[in-house]
Design brief:
- The complex is a heterodimer of chains A (about 110) and B (about 120).
- Chain A is an all-beta fold and about 110 residues long.
- Helix content of chain A is about 0%, strand content about 60%.
- In chain A, strands 2, 4, 5, 9, 10 and 11 form a 6-stranded mixed β-sheet that branches. A 5-stranded antiparallel β-sheet of chain A has the order 1-3-8-7-6, with no helix packed on it.
- Chain B is an all-beta fold and about 120 residues long.
- Chain B contains no helices and 11 strands.
- Chain B has strands spanning about 5, 10-15, 20-25, 30-40, 40-50, 55, 65, 75-80, 85-95, 105, 110-115.
- In chain B, the strands form 2 sheets. In chain B, strands 2, 4, 5, 6, 9, 10 and 11 form a 7-stranded mixed β-sheet that branches. A 4-stranded antiparallel β-sheet of chain B has the order 1-3-8-7, with no helix packed on it.
Chain lengths: ~110, ~120
């Protein structure tokens, strides 16, 4: 069945350092979404990528969708304490959405 | 708009007890979902609904039942709770499943402990 793998599972970075999480699918995706969940909170939609090779930016966050539409990445430049949380990717195919297990980001002051 | 709301926020059950979790959305969304979240396991889909009166199984449906009698409500039932069902349960809704329609809006979650 369709699987969405996300790495790393955990990441500790010093405040100001960059952070990247990767999402890989076993099958070609129609689109991919990214969500952020703050500690104790619920997942909140960040962005959706649809086109092959698409790159979108939201301030310090850069999202990429691979050429083959099987992988994606989220890159945060110069992390801040407000970036703490778990980042999930969610791949969509055949009207089904599968969430990755998430990457938990810890920021060291 | 309240968005997606869940009732209750917390619950402690004894093994074998039953309960119903209520999810309500005021965005006129067609699709609704129930997920459970366990440490290191991400979000796992339990059941979902593509419209009023319809339900379908997700990845981990065993031990749960659902109903969607009204478009705005999606109920998750545990008939005989087990300790393995200790988890945080999230409800979500979306307009649809197609591109640009499938952004999911999540409720605040229900933390369930089964002793």
């Amino acid at each position: 069945g369709q699987q969405v793998m996300q790495i790393p599972q955990y990441q500790h970075v010093q405040e100001g350092e960059d952070f990247t999480t990767y999402c890989n699918s076993s099958t070609t995706l129609s689109n991919i979404q990214w969500y952020k969940q703050r500690p104790g909170g619920h997942p909140v939609f960040l962005i959706q990528l649809v086109k092959s090779g698409e790159v979108k930016k939201q301030k310090r966050l850069t999202f990429q969708f691979g050429e083959a539409k099987k992988n994606s990445s989220l890159h945060i430049t110069a992390t801040q304490t407000t970036d703490v949380g778990t980042y999930f990717c969610a791949g969509s195919r055949d009207d089904k959405i599968i969430f990755g297990k998430g990457t938990r980001l810890h920021i060291l002051p | 708009n309240a968005g997606v709301t869940q009732t209750p926020k917390f619950r402690v059950l004894k093994t074998g007890q039953s309960m119903t979790l209520l999810c309500a959305q005021d965005m006129n969304h067609e699709y609704m979902y129930w997920y459970r979240q366990d440490p290191g396991m991400g979000l796992r889909l339990i059941h979902y609904s593509v419209g009023e009166g319809t339900t379908a199984k997700g990845e981990v449906p065993d031990g749960y039942n659902v109903s969607r009698l009204k478009k705005q409500n999606f109920l998750l039932g545990l008939e005989s709770a087990a300790p393995s069902q200790t988890s945080v349960y999230f409800c979500a809704s979306s307009y649809g499943q197609r591109e640009l329609d499938n952004e999911q809006f999540f409720g605040p979650g229900t933390r369930l402990t089964v002793l």
